[in-house]
Design a protein that fits this description.
The complex is a heterodimer of chains A (727) and B (335). With 727 residues, chain A is α+β, with helices and mostly antiparallel strands. Chain A has two domains: 285 residues, ABC transporter involved in vitamin B12 uptake, BtuC, CATH 1.10.3470; 301 residues, TolB, C-terminal domain (Neuraminidase), CATH 2.120.10. Chain A has a four-stranded antiparallel sheet with strand order 3-26-25-24, with no helix packed on it. Chain A has a four-stranded antiparallel sheet with strand order 4-5-6-7, with no helix packed on it. The longest helix of chain A is centred in the middle third of the chain and has 34 residues. The two termini of chain A are 24 Å apart. The chains are: A alpha+beta (727), B mainly alpha (335).
């Protein structure tokens, strides 16, 4: 392959080239990395995960825990933990109640007053009314829910401002509580009623942990699953996210908000009941400042008031952060005022960091996403005499079909009757009817971006649709999605099951469809970024129509593009665009990996298709140049370029000229077809031979070229070749 | 005549219906209290109402400006107490009244500026930033100056304190003058300055104000420093009158609630962009009359709280009835 080639005179095609077989065993191996490890990629992938939203609260929690571990003795000893678990439900349940209201787009300042009120109600029911304990809990919960009904009626059903409404109920309920508790305090504290159940709830343990803690855990799990699984939870989040959208989606917005307040009130009632059972008394300061303490805990976990987010775990983490901090500082003997000061500072700090982090997260992802690597392309070889300045531009003689009627035919294909099919940018498959291809009709509208085309054994059209996957189109215009995901690769931070940019395909003799997913990291609009990155982001996939299973045949290929079954029906040819090479796979031994059939091409190979003489046609979408080749060895340069230079000024391959290479059966470049420098056929991405003519498509072009091939077999058709009638 | 035209304008303009209602309720309360409560209509009671409501009115001037700009300052009472503490410390250290005032004003300006920085530059929601800064300020001043106590005393004999409780003219105490000055300054700020225009623009639509190039950050600093200074003045008046700075004012929250009540009852919506001096005066008048009448009737503080809470709930419901809002077009954070 490295031998210099003599100029091939125009018309060399006339001499039939013997169909030489591919000698797979003697081809050089292509190294395919098993794993692409890059710190920057891992960073950007991690930054794009959903849970990164809670990273700062979680880190803050870790820092607090570690600081406590480092500075105190025995804070996490079991006795202290047990005490904290006993007091946890006071705030823990109420913060979840707050979360329910805040997630629905409201706020509840009355929780502190309500907490005191329900605790008093429980004590009153137990000591004065002497109700049995099983009846005390409903009393407490009902009183709490009643305050919730008031809040919900005003803020939910009537649509008053939640802040003012709950401020009003906060003050009113606090006043009522003070009046009521003052009048009953003596009677309650002098009551001698004892009850085993009451004391069990207040002091005892169940399975080693305080009963109150179990109540908290139960509430937490219930709320968690409410948001994940229940209709009501989903409605809450929808209402919090966008009220208008929720109403238009058929959700009773007002009723949902109302229910949120009632539920929150009932939960506060439960918490007040547990408090009453444990403390057996209430004071004038019960629940004072609770709403603000818990609001900060909530905000710390959520990172601001974010309606429509039911992040139970985050909120509990935020609450525990403040709870631990508070306890540790008081245990360490700091005065209350100092604790208050420090806590305020820490909350401000965490919030400020979190707000900044969330604000800049997108920018951080954008600046770290492109992850270029040094790549030394193999020097151009074997085609010196075929370059555009050395030979006649044969494509200048091509006729132009359907000019302006189609937009971006990445691939073209002809059926045995001579009808031509191509995909377009707006997601259609067009049919150009035989024999003169003047009549352009829409075969089907799929959506996405149809790229590669192939016929299966039944004569249906298979197409790779970027952004969708593999689609089968019947000739009556119906279409169905064959597959859009493959198995997940073992070490990937981001889920890479989805086929992102299905590019080209071919069908093996056993019916299995082999197709390329050109890049897992960029969408169709940004395919050019993949060249600047220069990493092996693509993969070769297979789909077996018999089992319906999709497999990853070979991962980590460098922009695998055109796929073609070799004439010998045993090998699969895959063009590797950024590597400027064509790889060969042995279908009987796919595990052996790819070997290099031809490398050092002068341009970027796109689709590859069979030729009538036992060779192959290879489309060049663009041409290499020394500047981009040099830039490929300098990843830092490309990274800076994409960040500081507008895209129109980026260094890139030359996409203004393209051509078709003729390979022989062993992969040697035998001839080249170029258009004039100002010709209409640029950036050629596909070509098909059909009955002595070559049809050319271009992904950014609006026309199809037709070039007569003197000397080619005038009876040869692609479908015939696959059916075994041809060469 | 001016009043009656305002009244009729109020009837025509739905936005001002609540004001009209509040005005009518205030007049009705005055009439009822005058007839039923002994000593309400007495000559001395007017000056009592005036001097008792002065600090509330001054605080409301600060809060109103913040709320018109669509902010919220929950630290206003904490700052008020912090200012009084600083003043008391300076006076105890032997500084003269003028010097002590300058030092206090400097300290309070810094506190207000920090609040504003958190909101304008760190971009925390105003409610959270001021909630946390209230914790920080209270904690810091109690820790550093009061050594954990609740109270700091101001000797009433000290000339620097005496001057705040004296009469400027016979029958016109400093308190009343300070209230008038605060009202006048607020009117000038809102109606006669560029900053005032920006404040209304921010309240109307913050993003639009920012996008059109208005200096929202400097004005935010001005707003919160303004609120802090108003709080300081109120704090000096209250503590010099009572002879002590009491940190429990912060923790029991009643004063903060009263201030918000004044602003909201006066007809300044929490979503900002509307309202002015008239609203502050209306709100203060209602609350002052209510407080005074209830105190004369020997209603307990708790009962007063309940009544004020119910009044707020009714006001919220009435305002919503008169001026229904479209909750669907509320953006995130409109509470």
């Amino acid at each position: 392959m490295t031998q210099a080639m003599k100029p091939v005179p125009d018309g060399a095609m006339r001499r039939p080239v013997p169909a030489a077989a591919i000698d797979f065993a003697r081809l050089p191996r292509q190294r395919v990395p098993r794993l692409v490890l890059s710190p920057r990629r891992i960073l950007s992938d991690v930054l794009m995960r959903g849970w990164i939203e809670s990273a700062i609260p979680f880190l803050a929690f870790l820092v607090v825990v570690l600081t406590i571990l480092a500075t105190t003795d025995g804070f996490f000893a079991s006795s202290n933990l047990m005490t904290m678990a006993q007091y946890l439900p006071d705030g823990g349940i109420v913060v979840l109640a707050l979360l329910i209201v805040v997630a629905a787009g409201g706020i509840d300042l009355s929780v502190g007053s309500n907490f005191a009120m329900t605790a008093f109600a429980a004590l009153f029911a137990f000591h004065i009314l002497e109700l049995p304990v099983w009846a005390v809990l409903p009393v407490s919960v009902l009183i709490g829910a009643l305050v919730g009904v008031l809040n919900g009626t005003l803020a939910g059903l009537l649509g008053c401002g939640a802040l003012l409404t709950t401020l009003g109920t906060m003050i009113t309920v606090r006043g009522l509580y003070t009046l009521a508790s003052q009048s009953q305090l003596v009677a309650i504290s002098s009551s001698a009623r004892m009850d085993d159940t009451w004391d069990y709830i207040g002091f005892d343990r169940f399975a080693g942990l305080p009963v109150g803690f179990w109540a908290f855990a139960l509430v937490a799990v219930t709320v968690f699953f409410m948001y994940r699984q229940s209709r009501f939870g989903w409605h809450l989040l929808a209402v919090g996210g966008n009220r208008k959208a929720a109403r238009n989606g058929g959700i009773g917005v007002k009723r949902t908000v109302f229910m949120a307040y009632v539920l929150a009130g009932a939960l506060v009632g439960l918490s007040g009941f547990l408090y009453a059972a444990r403390q057996n008394s209430v004071g004038s300061d019960t629940g004072i400042g609770m709403e603000f303490f818990l609001l900060t805990a909530l905000v710390l976990g959520l990172g601001g008031f974010t309606p429509g987010r039911g992040a139970v775990v985050s909120v509990i983490i935020g609450f525990l952060t403040i709870y631990f901090l508070n306890n540790a500082m008081i245990n360490a003997g700091f005065r209350g005022d100092f604790v208050q000061f420090t806590q305020g500072m820490i909350i401000l700090l965490i919030l400020a960091i979190d707000v900044r982090f969330k604000k800049n997260l997108n920018r951080l992802v954008a600046s770290s996403y492109l992850d270029p690597v040094a790549r030394k392309p193999e020097p151009v070889q074997g085609t010196d005499a075929l370059m555009p300045d050395r030979i006649v531009p044969k494509l200048a003689e091509a006729k132009i079909l359907a000019a302006g009627k189609i937009d971006g035919p990445e691939d073209v294909i002809l059926d045995s009757a001579g009808n031509l099919y191509c995909g377009t940018r707006d997601g259609r498959i067009m049919k150009l009817a035989a024999p003169d291809h003047r009549e352009v009709t829409v075969l089907v509208k799929i959506g996405g971006r149809p790229l590669g085309l192939a016929f299966d054994a039944d004569g249906a059209l298979l197409t790779c649709v970027a952004g969708m996957g593999l689609v089968r189109v019947a000739m009556d215009g119906t279409h169905d999605l064959l597959t859009d995901q493959t198995t997940r690769s073992l070490f990937s931070v981001q889920d890479d099951t989805t086929i992102r940019m299905a590019d080209d395909l071919d069908v093996a003799p056993d019916g299995v469809i082999y197709f390329s997913d050109a890049t897992k990291r960029y969408d169709m609009e940004n395919w050019a970024m993949d060249l600047l990155e220069g990493r092996p982001n693509g993969r070769l996939l297979s789909y077996d129509p018999k089992t319906g299973r999709t497999r990853t045949v070979c991962d980590n290929l460098l922009f695998p593009n055109g796929v073609c079954l070799a004439h010998d029906r045993r090998h699969l040819l895959v063009a590797s665009t950024w590597d400027c090479s064509v790889l060969a796979f042995d279908l009987q031994n796919l595990k052996a990996g790819p070997r290099v059939l031809v490398s050092g091409l002068p341009g970027y190979p796109d689709n590859i298709n069979r030729a009538s003489d036992g060779g192959y046609w290879l489309a060049l979408a663009g041409m290499r140049n020394p500047v981009i080749d040099l830039a490929m060895t300098h990843p830092g340069l490309r990274r800076r370029m994409t960040r500081r230079v507008p895209p129109t000024n980026w260094l890139f391959g030359n996409l203004n000229i393209g051509g078709v290479l003729k390979l022989d059966g062993t992969g040697r470049v035998r001839d080249a077809y170029w258009d004039r420098p100002d010709g209409p056929l640029y950036m050629i991405t596909s070509m098909r031979e059909h009955q002595g003519a070559l049809y050319l498509g271009g992904v950014t072009n609006d026309k199809i070229g037709r070039l007569d091939l003197p000397g080619a077999d005038p009876a040869w058709t692609g479908p015939g070749s696959y059916a075994g009638q041809g060469t | 005549m001016a009043d009656s035209t305002t009244l009729f304008a109020g009837l025509r303009d739905r936005n001002r219906l609540l004001e009209t209602v509040v005005f009518a309720v205030t007049l009705a309360l005055v009439a009822i209290f005058s007839l039923t409560v002994d000593g309400f209509a007495a000559r001395g009671n007017l000056s009592v109402i005036l001097s008792n409501s002065a600090s509330l009115c001054i605080l409301s001037c600060g809060m109103a400006v913040v709320i018109i700009s669509r902010g919220l300052d929950l630290s206003i009472v904490a700052v008020m107490v912090a200012g009084a503490t600083t003043y008391a410390t300076c006076v105890q250290a032997g500084l003269g009244g003028g010097m002590a005032l300058v030092v206090t004003a400097l300290v309070i300006t810094v506190v207000g500026a920090i609040n504003a920085w958190l909101i304008a530059f760190a971009e925390l929601p105003a409610m959270l930033a001021t909630l946390a800064s209230a914790m920080v300020v209270t904690g810091l001043f109690r820790f550093a100056i009061l050594q954990g106590e609740f109270l700091i005393l101001l000797q009433k004999s000290n000339p620097a304190v005496q001057i705040l409780t004296s009469d400027i003219l016979p029958g016109v105490p400093v308190t009343t003058v300070a209230m008038m000055a605060a009202l006048a300054a607020t009117w000038v700020l809102l109606n006669r300055t560029i900053a005032g225009e920006v404040i209304y623009a921010m309240g109307d639509n913050f993003l639009a104000a920012r996008l059109s190039g208005l200096p929202v950050r400097p004005v935010t600093i001005l707003i919160y420093v303004w609120a802090a200074l108003m709080a300081m003045v109120a704090g000096l008046l209250v503590s010099s009158a009572s002879g002590a700075v009491d940190f429990r004012t912060v923790t029991n929250g009643t004063l903060l609630f009263d201030v918000i009540l004044v602003v909201v009852l006066g007809g300044i919506p929490l979503r900002g962009g509307r309202g002015g001096l008239r609203n502050i005066i209306l709100g203060v008048a209602l609350i002052a009359v209510l407080r005074n009448g209830m105190t004369l009737m020997n209603v307990t503080t708790q009962m007063q709280d309940v009544i004020k809470g119910v009044v707020l709930l009714i006001a919220v419901a009435v305002e919503n009835f008169l001026n229904p809002r479209d909750i669907e077009t509320d953006t995130v954070g409109d509470l």
